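Researcher: I'm preparing a figure for a lab meeting and need a structural model of a single chain. I don't have an experimental structure, so a prediction will have to do for now. The sequence is pasted below. Please return the structure as tokens so I can convert it later.
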Amino acid sequence: RSLVYSPDETFRCEAVPHLASVEPGTKLRLRFQLLAARTSQEVWSDEQPATAGEPVPVPVEIPLAKLDEGAYDLTIEAVNAAKFHWPQQVRPQLLRGPLAERTVQFLVLHAKPPAASEGRSATVVEIDPANPKWWERFARLPQWGRLPRLSKGPLGNGRLRTVRHALGEAAELAASKPGDASWEAYTLPINRPGEPHILEVEYPSDVPQTLGVSVVEPNAAGALVPHGLDSGVDQAEEVVAVAGEPKWLRHRLVFYPRTKAPIVLMTNRRESSPAVYGKIRVLAGWGKLPRAFPASSPPERLFAGYLDRPLFPENFSATESLGALSELKSVDDWVTFYEGGTRLVEYLHYAGQNGLMLSVLADASSISPCDRLEPTPRYDTGAFFASGQDPVRKDVLEMLLRLFDREGLQLIPALEFSTPLPELEAILRRGGPEAEGIRWVGPEGANWLQVHSPHLGKAPYYNLLHPRVQEAMLAAAREVAANYGRHPSFAGLGLQLSAYGYAQLPGPEWGLDD
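Model: Understood. Here is the structure written out token by token.
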């Protein structure tokens, strides 16, 4: 059900051709081909006979023992069997492609992670933004010949200047205007996309500021999307007042470039004062990030990271695939989640963390197939593939738990109850005494949603003290525990408490009855 397999398992399915374009009884050949995902690299193939109009399943069995770890595409094509015997002169009209085709994608995970050399890091890019001609040195690099001419020079909205600081010359972004931030962007020449890099930005210890640092890259469709890699520095006045002698501090950000020309975007997040920064560097050379602790002696106490949304593929710049809809051109496949999951594990070891609390249900979407919740595709857009390669919803939580199992890490899935539950909505639609008390009621006799508007669709929809509400929420929690509690890495279950959710009680004026 999860579409996550071990090498000691066998992939099994049944194929039934449904062909409206040929007469019933037409002899067919079903072609099966297993490819490494997103490639034309074939690792297994087979052919079997079938007959149109006869709903007789054709069994398929693929042993996985010899496969490398990763995602695979099983392509199925139905062709007219007669074309193999007809004379050459009458074949062209039959060579227009298969009568029907389908793709199914699944993931193979080994008990041990693939070997990767950690290597040694070195500075591969250094930019001095205080030098107005910093970019002339990069303009001679071969990979810059394919970039737009504008990107070879400084990019910004004209609010950057060079200032003399006690530590030397530095770049200063003027105070931002209301609704119009001061910004400057720098294109980074990268030779090895997909490998871990560290972006390093210098800033002085004696300047109060809020400096935004973002890595901007297009998705698979070439479009820039809101979710990206954003970080920054917030240096308060009271911290600067006791900082002592000025010195250069360094803000570091791990990123995995998708392209050979990512852009680092610097923004001033204050309207009252300028932002000051020094040199920008990129360090690289690892095949894999080094671990903070040896694998033989991990931390004994739980020191966990926290992600309040399941956006780890975006956090670690996992690549996407092209989808079917013009307005949603970049779609999540198993490669997306596998890249994001393995990079997440790698980063936890690098940061010295041995666990993670991760929101797996948020904003009416989920990264696990929860039957009771009917999640939307927000955090798994695989439903938009024209190939129909997700016959069931991907179980990304199962993949993460297997990755954490083999790495000795702990994972705490968290649930956010802030959107309608199908079970309770069905009761409310039926109405009657059974529906009374499910929604919060205030002193005016109106329910919460009649008085307040939801925030991005999120609200305290239900009365947490009502037995039916409690049972519906507990049922969702039990489903997660029952499906994943067998994993050694499953370290508990979290509930996200929010004013926009119903896992937390609202103010005392709510919760009245008639």
